[in-house]
Task: inverse folding
């Protein structure tokens, strides 16, 4: 399909946003905001050395929110035509006739709008054909299947690349947009021994193709992870220290963010109400947000309301420094937005001195968790209970793989009982951390 | 059904001036590279949602999605492209992108048959228009008032209402031509209660393929409000859940999420064709106690997981998965059925035109057994009685699955005792049903709020079961 010059596409989308805002004004809205995106991509999967799927994607989206005083209505569509602009605004206006007056609703305050759209180096489209994509995915899967006869089957390797343009604007006069790209390569393979089958995966993702891990390394790591699970046993029910491997520790950071987000706070649906300024973690913990990181996977110069983003510490010296708010939540809580409409962007836990081996020795005897299953995190109470798989560790060394167990505790106790954060920050994604060693949790098993 | 097809044609084809010969032309283009099969899926969906919070209707949203997905298959290879433009040139361009997986080959001309006739399981009318806006808002307010009237400890009530109307038309190289018009409504209530500094939540809801009057009938919507508050108040009294392996009695209805996770996903055709499921190659073997018969049934009128025809135009059916403990069959879409030498079972589903179809569940449930529910609870000396759950997850290769209880009680000396905090239960899919020693006579289906995720695609599903006793299941509490 034909490619459009991103600058030309950006200008087109900016015009659609202007049209949406003008149409909202014409239909009587006192304020409005709109977002338009256009994205295209290619995804190829190779399984057992053969092409399995080749998918061409082309996604468009347009959304508008109109305000009539303190009442609002929203509408969206996948159609970017002028008729869709008019119809979508009309649908949003119709909704706004029936929503309630809400004193906290409205656009973010005008003085908070980003003054300039900083260039964050987020756009590196990958001019790749399906055939070239297949070759990369095949190299990845081949490496996963090559090393060990116990790798008997595969779910395949997938190369995914997409790029597009996004524009947001509102009736304060703010209109900002920028092109982005994202590429990823993943691989999942199955190993088998007398005890049965195990599956695991690995992946890499980046804004620019040159920042991806090598296909062979991704494949080999997927195979290593699968092989390490073979022969997994259960454990007896017990209490023990738990080491969350880096990719799982990122999930604990997500739980923290979930509990300090605006809706959880103003609904009183968080175990961290009134936790601002309180020590949640030991003093060595620092968690930093950097929305302006160059090539960052969730970088953005402005948030989903046009508010300028900025770097900050979410946790410093173990103490919660701020909440994660948009302007609606901020008004509900009597404070100001933190520029987090749309979520947190690029969160990093400051790395500690120990590598993975050092963490195992620090733990002595306990559980390493490499997989968590289910949604058993209650952010209202902090109660945590999830299915787990990983390794049992004795005297600082991995003894054997384990599965079909649960780990349980309360997030407040788990945060307070954080013994160490490793420097083994080797997992992909926009939340970056080393492994987390938690003092004690309940393990349920046989 | 012919009337339904006429609506689909009027919605999707007529505005773009497309006729049956144009669909054949697109399929001919797809098939010109010597492919095994191809299809064209056109869809228009409209969705409206409302949210009440803090006693006010805070948000309302409306969306329209429209487009076509084109798929070309050769052996185990699939090429796919989609477009949000339903005009013929855009469809032909997408066809060229999709068919590029195959090199040159002998082309084949496609002749579409008369539209598939299947029983209508739901009305074709748009649920968005089944109540006027003022009545929708009034419904939200009444649900909110009902929840708050239950107890002074209710601090927060969130009510959401969603109505969707999905029109689809599929044309395939095997001559299939089918259309369907699918309504879907849902109401959810979530409450926070607070007492003595302790906060807990409760939630409930229901839905159907039908009009919004479903929610008004039989006091349903207000019943969800009372149920959400009841659950939250139970949780205010909950003590730490036990940790370890013990007998577990599962209540009827929504706890059937056990079946969805423990065996349902593992019996989807794609995983079995590829040999990646713990159930692969086990047809004819005992995988459950003889008390267990489990079906996937897409033909139940008005149920959330039901479909007159699936997204490949195959009429849905009631597929026996496990009969008296023996594994009988898999759930199939056309591609996996073709590659496995089996028949499609009406389980080919996709989230939208922008996603590839694959084998998915519809309504998955266990048939009733011989035992009185009270007798099942009384049979347990020390264990857990779990009646409400959040979601679950499964690793289909190792067979390990979890599901998270949101309302559960200790059983002591055959009697239901104190409520315990939510806990995750974990087990092994191929083993868990072999440990079912009692099956109740109280089969119930869930209230109609289930959604299932697979490979990034979400589709509405149903589950159900009678009260069950599982002799051994691991309960992930904190009280060791």
Result:
């Amino acid at each position: 399909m034909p490619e459009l010059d991103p600058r030309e596409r950006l200008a087109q989308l900016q015009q659609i946003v202007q049209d949406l805002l003008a149409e909202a004004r014409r239909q009587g809205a006192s304020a409005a905001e709109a977002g338009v995106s256009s994205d295209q991509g290619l995804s190829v999967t190779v399984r057992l050395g053969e092409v399995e799927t080749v998918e061409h994607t082309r996604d468009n989206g347009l959304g508008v929110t109109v305000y009539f005083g303190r009442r609002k209505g929203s509408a969206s569509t996948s159609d970017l035509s002028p008729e869709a602009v008019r119809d979508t605004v009309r649908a949003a206006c119709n909704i706004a006739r029936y929503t309630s007056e809400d004193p906290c609703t409205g656009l973010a305050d005008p003085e908070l709008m980003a003054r300039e759209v900083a260039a964050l180096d987020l756009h590196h489209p990958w001019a790749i054909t399906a055939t070239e994509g297949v070759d990369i995915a095949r190299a990845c899967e081949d490496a996963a299947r090559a090393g060990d006869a116990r790798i008997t089957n595969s779910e395949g390797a997938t190369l995914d690349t997409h790029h597009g343009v996004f524009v947001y604007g509102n009736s304060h006069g703010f209109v900002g947009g920028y092109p982005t790209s994202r590429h990823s390569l993943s691989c999942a393979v199955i190993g088998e021994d007398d005890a049965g089958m195990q599956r695991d995966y690995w992946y890499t993702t980046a804004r620019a193709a040159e920042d991806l891990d090598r296909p062979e390394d991704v494949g080999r790591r997927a195979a290593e992870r699968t092989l390490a699970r073979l022969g997994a046993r259960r454990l007896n029910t017990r209490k023990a220290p738990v080491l969350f491997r880096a990719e799982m520790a990122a999930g604990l950071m997500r739980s923290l963010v979930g509990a300090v987000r605006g809706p959880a706070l103003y609904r009183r649906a968080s175990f961290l109400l009134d936790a601002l300024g309180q020590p949640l973690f030991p003093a060595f913990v620092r968690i930093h947000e950097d929305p302006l990181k160059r090539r960052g996977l969730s970088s953005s110069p402005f948030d989903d309301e046009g508010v300028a983003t900025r770097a900050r510490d979410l946790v410093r010296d173990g103490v919660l420094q701020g909440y994660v708010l948009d302007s609606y939540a901020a008004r509900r809580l009597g404070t100001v937005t933190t520029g987090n409409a749309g979520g947190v962007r690029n969160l990093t836990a400051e790395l500690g001195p120990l590598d993975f081996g050092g963490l195992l020795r620090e733990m002595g005897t306990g559980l390493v968790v490499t997989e968590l299953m289910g949604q058993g995190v209650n952010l209202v109470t902090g109660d945590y209970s999830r299915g787990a798989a990983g390794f049992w560790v004795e005297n600082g060394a991995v003894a054997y793989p384990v599965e079909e167990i649960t780990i349980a505790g309360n997030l407040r106790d788990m945060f307070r009982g954080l013994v160490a954060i490793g420097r083994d920050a080797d997992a992909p994604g926009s939340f970056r951390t080393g492994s987390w060693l938690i003092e004690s949790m309940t393990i349920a098993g046989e | 059904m012919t009337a339904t097809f006429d609506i689909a044609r009027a919605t999707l084809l007529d505005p773009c001036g497309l006729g049956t010969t144009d669909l054949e032309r697109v399929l001919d283009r797809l098939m010109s590279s010597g492919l095994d099969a191809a299809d064209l899926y056109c869809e228009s969906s409209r969705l409206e949602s409302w949210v009440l919070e803090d006693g006010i209707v805070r948000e309302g949203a409306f969306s329209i999605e429209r487009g076509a997905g084109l798929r070309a298959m050769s052996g185990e290879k699939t090429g796919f492209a989609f477009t949000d433009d339903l005009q013929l040139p855009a469809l032909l361009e997408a066809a060229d992108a999709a068919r590029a997986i195959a090199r040159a080959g002998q082309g084949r001309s496609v002749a579409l048959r008369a539209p598939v006739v299947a029983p209508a399981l739901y009305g074709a009318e748009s649920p968005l228009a089944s109540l006027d806006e003022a009545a929708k808002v009034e419904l939200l307010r009444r649900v909110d008032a009902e929840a708050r009237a239950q107890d002074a400890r209710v601090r927060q009530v969130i009510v959401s209402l969603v109505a969707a109307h999905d029109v689809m038309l599929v044309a395939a190289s095997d001559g299939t031509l089918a259309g369907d018009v699918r309504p879907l409504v849902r109401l959810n209530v979530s409450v926070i209660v607070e007492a003595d500094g302790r906060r807990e939540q409760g939630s409930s809801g229901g839905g159907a393929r039908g009009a919004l009057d479903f929610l008004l009938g039989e006091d349903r919507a207000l019943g969800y409000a009372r149920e959400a508050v009841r659950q939250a108040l139970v949780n205010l009294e909950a003590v730490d859940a036990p940790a370890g392996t013990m007998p577990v009695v599962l209540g009827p209805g929504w706890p059937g999420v056990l079946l969805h996770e423990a065996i349902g996903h593992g019996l989807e055709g794609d995983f079995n064709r590829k040999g990646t499921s713990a159930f692969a190659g086990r047809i004819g073997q005992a995988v459950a106690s003889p008390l267990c018969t489990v079906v996937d049934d897409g033909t139940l009128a008005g149920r959330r997981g039901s479909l007159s025809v699936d997204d490949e135009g195959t009429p849905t059916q009631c597929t026996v998965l496990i009969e008296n403990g023996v594994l009988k069959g898999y759930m199939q879409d056309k591609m996996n059925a073709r590659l496995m030498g089996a028949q499609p079972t009406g389980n080919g589903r996709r989230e939208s035109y922008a996603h590839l179809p694959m084998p998915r569940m519809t309504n998955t449930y266990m048939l009733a057994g011989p035992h009185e529910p009270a007798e099942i609870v009384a049979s347990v000396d020390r264990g857990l009685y779990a009646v409400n759950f959040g979601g679950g997850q499964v690793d289909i290769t190792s067979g390990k699955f979890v599901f998270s209880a949101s309302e559960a009680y200790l059983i002591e000396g055959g009697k239901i005792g104190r409520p315990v905090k939510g806990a995750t239960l974990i087990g092994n899919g191929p083993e868990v049903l072999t440990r079912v020693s009692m099956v109740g006579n109280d089969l119930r289906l869930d209230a109609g709020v289930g959604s299932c995720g697979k490979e990034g695609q979400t589709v509405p599903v149903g589950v159900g079961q009678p009260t069950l006793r599982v002799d051994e299941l691991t309960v992930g509490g904190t009280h060791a």
User: Anything to note?
Assistant: Residues 21 and 112 of chain B are 9 Å apart (CA to CA). The two ends of chain B are 57 Å apart (CA to CA). Chain B has a mean pLDDT of 96.
